Structure formats: structure tokens, C-alpha cells
């Protein structure tokens, strides 16, 4: 209580969040959730997108928070864009700038120092970078940021333990690295029998049909190909199961996804929903959640959201997925469809009561460690430590 009274007696801390873009990705979604959870009496917040307003820009504005979009081109920001950002920061006069993702860390870090911002915090959202897949501009931004981390940021937040360890090895300044994981709104994401029934009715999936879900944009990082191999093998063992896939690019109009599904002979069991705005209902309808990512994950939101809805998960050992799941699901090596098939089959063989008990344990684990209020408080403490050392 004393800490709350001390905070209310101080003027609000002006925080500007600088992010690469405002699409519906994991980092962007976490920023949106954090903005809604932070104490408005303690913080006066604004957001700058290096690109455009994206999907989340209007939703952030609906929270009463100003959003600026600079219209930069994707990739390494050019000097003119950095100077434009610095001019805007001089006008806004924040006490602290929080940047999100590599390109914003780099551009926002330089611009914040040019603008004379008192405090700068970076936010790392990825774990490993697969050199075969990561863009050249992203790899260049990481190398530059590792070198500049000795001077630019006052603090560096990582969304996972794995991300901290990997970036320390890449040369990031270790004494400024701190882990604050993603948080989840347990009022929105929770078991919901009505939502489960409605979603299954929409898909014409019977209440007793095992429904396995992969919530991820279509991207090599997410390894839809590996998941589909596992799904095809699982369908041979259990022809009654169904598969729900949703996310950007996850539609029958995408030949790179629809082709392999039809070739595997499981088109009749797959539901491709594209991007959805009703993720609590999507997760509540599942029996098993899957994160099949091959590389690059820091802290996958899809796993925490499914678990918060009482859904046990099978995940690949990428980023902090294994830590999130703990003993409430199964962990398999990445790029190993056979292991994924075995783990899914093991969960499907459980009787409904045992599988539900696993889901309840998963829900409890998220509530204990990753509730949004708890995570917002950790961001608050970090900012206060920097402003009032």
C-alpha cells in the first residue's frame, strides 16, 4: 500500500513505446495488453510505429493512447527515418523510451539518444536466429544492436530465459539483461463451455471429436509442414480427430498450405480459419494445443493462451516453450514430426478426465506465473527503478 501511495503522489512518468510495426504478432499483442494493464495514474503513454498503424493501431487508440506511424520502409531504418523519429521524441519529451524488436531497438535507441531522452529500455522478443531463414537486415540489426548495447540502453528486457542466454552469447551487455515474460488476461482466456460449443457448431465439429489446434501465422518459423506431417500420421491412427489452424496466411487460398493438406489426404479433417479476432473462443474449443515452431520463438503467446483456457499443449523445445508448459503437457524436439505425432497420440489416449486434469493444471500454471497483472507490475517496477534509482 505504501508503494501505491508513493506512486500516486508523483507526476505520471511519460513513456513512449517505439515498435517496428503494429500488426497482430506476438510482440505487438503483448504491447497492446501491457498498455491496457499499466496504471494510468503512474504512466502517461504514447506509441510510435516505425511502419504503419497496422491492425493494432486503432485498438491502441481506442484505449485513449496516442499512436504515431512514421511510414518507414521495412528493413534497416535509414538515417532520415531515424532523424524523423528523433524530432518526434523531442516534441513528446518522454522520461523513458521503451523499444520493441530489433529494428526498433536500433532506430529507437539512436533516436532517443539524439533527442536527449533520459532513459532507454530495449525489448528483445526472439530467441535464436536461423541464418537460413532470418532476413539479412534482421541479422545486421542484431549485430549492430549487440555492439551498441554497451552504450545505448539503460536496460534490456527479454521475453524469455532462452532469449537472454542467446543474446548474451551474441555480445549483448549482460549486466543490463532482465527477463520479463509475456502475460495473459485470465478474464478473457479461460475455459468456456458455451464458447466451445458455439465454435464447434460453426465448424460442424461434434462435441466428442478430438480437436487439435495450431494458432500461428503462415511462416517457415512456425513449421506448418512439420505439423501437417504429424497430423497426417495421427489421422491414420485416429480418423476421428480434427485439426484447427488459424493465423495470417492460413487459408485455403494459400497453395503452399492447402496443397500439402490435400496431398496428405486430410483436407476433410482440417479447418483453416485465417486470422481471427476471437482467440479466447478458438482456444476454448480445443482439446490439445500445439506449438510446432522450428526456431526463433521467444515466448509463444499461443501456448499461454491455450493453457489459460484449460487446454494441455504439445510444444517443440524452442524458446521458453518447455518452461511455460512444465509438466502439464509434452515437449518434443523441433523439426521432428514423428516425435510430435507420438506426443499427440499419447495425449489423445488419455481418458477425458485425465486430459481435463492436465488442462486444469495448465490453467493453474499460467495463473501462478504469467497472469497479466503480475507481468504489468514487473514492467512497472522496472520503469520505476530506472526513473527513481
Q: Supply the number of structural domains.
A: 2
The chain-level structural class is: alpha/beta
Strand order of the largest sheet: 3-2-1-4-5-6-7
SS field, number of helical segments: 16
Helix content percent band: 40-55%
CATH level-4 homologous superfamily of the largest domain: Glycogen Phosphorylase B
Low-confidence stretches are: none
Q: How is the CATH topology of the largest domain named? A: Rossmann fold
Q: What is the CA-CA span between the terminal residues?
A: 20 Å
Task: Give keywords.
Rossmann fold; 6-stranded parallel beta sheet; 2 domains; alpha/beta; 45% helix; 389 residues
Describe this entry's structure for a reader:
The chain has 16 helices and 13 strands. It is of the alpha/beta class. The protein has two domains: 2-183 and 371-387, Rossmann fold, CATH 3.40.50.2000; 193-369, 3-Layer(aba) Sandwich (Rossmann fold), CATH 3.40.50. Strands 3-2-1-4-5-6-7 form a seven-stranded parallel beta sheet, sandwiched between helices. Helix 6 (136-148) links the parallel strand 5 and strand 6 (155-158).
Amino acid at each position: 500500500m505504501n508503494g501505491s501511495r508513493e506512486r500516486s503522489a508523483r507526476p505520471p512518468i511519460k513513456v513512449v513505446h517505439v515498435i517496428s510495426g503494429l500488426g497482430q504478432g506476438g510482440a505487438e499483442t503483448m504491447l497492446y495488453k501491457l498498455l491496457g494493464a499499466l496504471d494510468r495514474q503512474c504512466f502517461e503513454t504514447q506509441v510510435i510505429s516505425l511502419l504503419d498503424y497496422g491492425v493494432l493501431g486503432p485498438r491502441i487508440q481506442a484505449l485513449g493512447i496516442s499512436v504515431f506511424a512514421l511510414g518507414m520502409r521495412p528493413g534497416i531504418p535509414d538515417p532520415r527515418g531515424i532523424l524523423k523519429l528523433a524530432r518526434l521524441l523531442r516534441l513528446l519529451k518522454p522520461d523513458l523510451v521503451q523499444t520493441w524488436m530489433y529494428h526498433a531497438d536500433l532506430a529507437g535507441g539512436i533516436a532517443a539518444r539524439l533527442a536527449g531522452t533520459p532513459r532507454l529500455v530495449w525489448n528483445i522478443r526472439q530467441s535464436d536466429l536461423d541464418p537460413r531463414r532470418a532476413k539479412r537486415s534482421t541479422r545486421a540489426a542484431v549485430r549492430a544492436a549487440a555492439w551498441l548495447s554497451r552504450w545505448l540502453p539503460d536496460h534490456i528486457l527479454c521475453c524469455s530465459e532462452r532469449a537472454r542466454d542467446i543474446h548474451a552469447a551474441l555480445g549483448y551487455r549482460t549486466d543490463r539483461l532482465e527477463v520479463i515474460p509475456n502475460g495473459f488476461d485470465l478474464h478473457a482466456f479461460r475455459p468456456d463451455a458455451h464458447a466451445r460449443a458455439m465454435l464447434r457448431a460453426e465448424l460442424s465439429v461434434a462435441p466428442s471429436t478430438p480437436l487439435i489446434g495450431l494458432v500461428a501465422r503462415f511462416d517457415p518459423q512456425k513449421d506448418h509442414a512439420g505439423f501437417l506431417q504429424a497430423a497426417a500420421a495421427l489421422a491414420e491412427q485416429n480418423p476421428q480427430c480434427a485439426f484447427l489452424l488459424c493465423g495470417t496466411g492460413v487459408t485455403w487460398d494459400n497453395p503452399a498450405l492447402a496443397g500439402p493438406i490435400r496431398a496428405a489426404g486430410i483436407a476433410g479433417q482440417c479447418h483453416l480459419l485465417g486470422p481471427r479476432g476471437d482467440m479466447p473462443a478458438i482456444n476454448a474449443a480445443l482439446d490439445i494445443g500445439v506449438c510446432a515452431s522450428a526456431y526463433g520463438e521467444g515466448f509463444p503467446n499461443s501456448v499461454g493462451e491455450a493453457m489459460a483456457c484449460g487446454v494441455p499443449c504439445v510444444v517443440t523445445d524452442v524458446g521458453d516453450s518447455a518452461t511455460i508448459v512444465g509438466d502439464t503437457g509434452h515437449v518434443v524436439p523441433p523439426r521432428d514430426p514423428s516425435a510430435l505425432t507420438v506426443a499427440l497420440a499419447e495425449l489423445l489416449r488419455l481418458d477425458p478426465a485425465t486430459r481435463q486434469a492436465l488442462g486444469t493444471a495448465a490453467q493453474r500454471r499460467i495463473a501462478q506465473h504469467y497472469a497479466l497483472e503480475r507481468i504489468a507490475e514487473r514492467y512497472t517496477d522496472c520503469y520505476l527503478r530506472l526513473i527513481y534509482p
